[in-house]
Amino acid sequence: MPARSWVPPGPYDLHRTLCVLQRGPGDPAFAVRGGEVWRACRTPEGPGTLRLEARPAAGAVEAQAWGPGADWLLERLPELLGASDEPDRFTARHRLVHEARRRHPGVRLARTGLVLESLIPSVLEQKVTSDEAYRAWRLLLQRHGEPAPGPWERMRVMPDARAWALIPSWEWHRAGVDAKRSSAILRAVRVARRMEEAAGMDLAAATRRLTALPGIGPWTAAETLQRTLGAPDAVTVGDLHLPKIIGYALTGRRGTTDEQMLELLAPYEGQRHRAARLILLSGVVPPRRAPRFPVGDIARL
């Protein structure tokens, strides 16, 4: 069983660094068990499972891997854990951001180097509640993914491009995925190689590559490239909640628009995603004044 360790250059928070890769509490491809983080991936070399555990006494993160993709995952372990991230280049411009950074010094931006594994669930999250998107991801992986290599039987590796393309329309419907989102995913997997090439591009070029595909807009591209590239400036525009949270946290005002959010984040140009991440970690959110957005279920229609 291949293994590797990585020594962070300073304080390190394994869970908060990698939690952005989890798609809901029931994600078949990501799990937390005790102090361990488990991740099942489809790498260019095939399926692989990664087990990660922080060992503060040794000042290291220990990793073990299984499957045909094990060597690929271990070779890129430091990148995944944020070795190429440069948090010291960030300067807090607001007291709340400064305090969030002080309380979470070990959070780094993960870089997976994989596009489709972030792009597909991001498409599933378009214009629906998180619970709906998480359910769709879970059902699609359980029914059309494959068992992940290694000792944890419940984990699943997402389908390869061909398997995604062969999912029948009624299975998308059963998972609650409408035709617009399933069509966008099918277009992406048909050009899977070109999509994956974005992992080697800078943020601007990668964004152009993804958004050239119908059904992939700026919101989906940013959500994907935050994870694929660990891009510190890939700010999410077009989100229902993020502008309101950032506006309330920084100004105390409600109803912030995308344009106003970008004005507030302008002092963080080049680091706007990191600033937004820290604001979310602060836990300051506007009080709820309306009922939750109703959960739809097209599978019952």
From TrEMBL:
Name the domain of life. Answer: Bacteria
User: Could you identify this protein by its name?
Assistant: 3-methyladenine DNA glycosylase
Q: Name one GO cellular component term.
A: protein-DNA complex
One GO MF term attached to the UniProt entry:
alkylated DNA binding
Listed A to Z, the keywords are: DNA damage, DNA repair
One record GO biological process: base-excision repair, AP site formation
